[in-house]
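Why do we bother with holo predictions? Because pocket geometry can differ from the apo form. Keep that in mind while you read this record for SKM.
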Amino acid sequence: QDAYVVIGNPIAHSRSPAIHRHFAQLTGQRLVYARCLSPLQGFAQTLQALRQHGIKGCNITVPFKHQAAQLASHCDARVQLAQAANTLVLNGPQGPVQAFNTDGIGLVRDLCDNAGLRLTGAHILLLGAGGAAAGALAPLLQAGPASLHIANRSAERAQALAQRHAALAAEHGVQLQALALDEIDHTPLPAMQLLINATASSLQGAALPIQNLPRLLAPGALAYDMMYGAAAQPFLHWASSQGQGIRTRDGLGMLVEQAAESFALWRGLRPPSAPVLAALRQQIGA
Ligand code: SKM
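The structure, written out:
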């Protein structure tokens, strides 16, 4: 049977094995999928051992996505922009290692297909400029919003991310801008349809220097946290307590959709994601 793993440190929390086993069951595919804890200083060796064992593919999670992109022999365009990979296709001990990033596609699918949001022409505010934001940016721009503002504690980091994506933004007619988090309240901004928390820690209340969230958001706007379950709750509670009609959503759908995209890359067919998301929600109780 073909074997796949998710590599990270820590990794015990990962829901990927359950998701991929459910996909395999729904599509009648025979495969095994396990967790793999890599030593923090030993990612290259871990990957080499997996290639030698004939593992067919990996998902990569924190903190190895950047290293995975660097070690791969072929990186797709999204990996090059994000400088991070979450999906590898392995081809034996000597064969090429192909790297993909499905996080952003997963986010866009969850927003459009599951949450029913229209991204074309929308105004988006993205909080954070680290790995999670970088992975999401290209697919968000390709969805054709009117504008996308990246706000980060360090404005320089947001600027660097925006600069790397400037050509893609221009190609899709998106106004792409970077600013410092604590400038948000004093900067004239369009009314946002979508606010995404892509910061590493769940931000809330005092940690978020936004005094007037309703001013920032269009009626019926969606506040989205890329994390899921308990980790997403502080931000989502804060957002929904700031004004009437602010909708919230955690990143569980993104997790399932990025996995579906990885599965399609490995197996050549797209699994249904709705029943898998429903089962996972029930397990997590969120
Ligand atoms: O990008 C994904 C990754 O593919 C798997 C994962 C997990 O198993 O928790 C989380 C995200 O980083």
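The mean pLDDT is 94.
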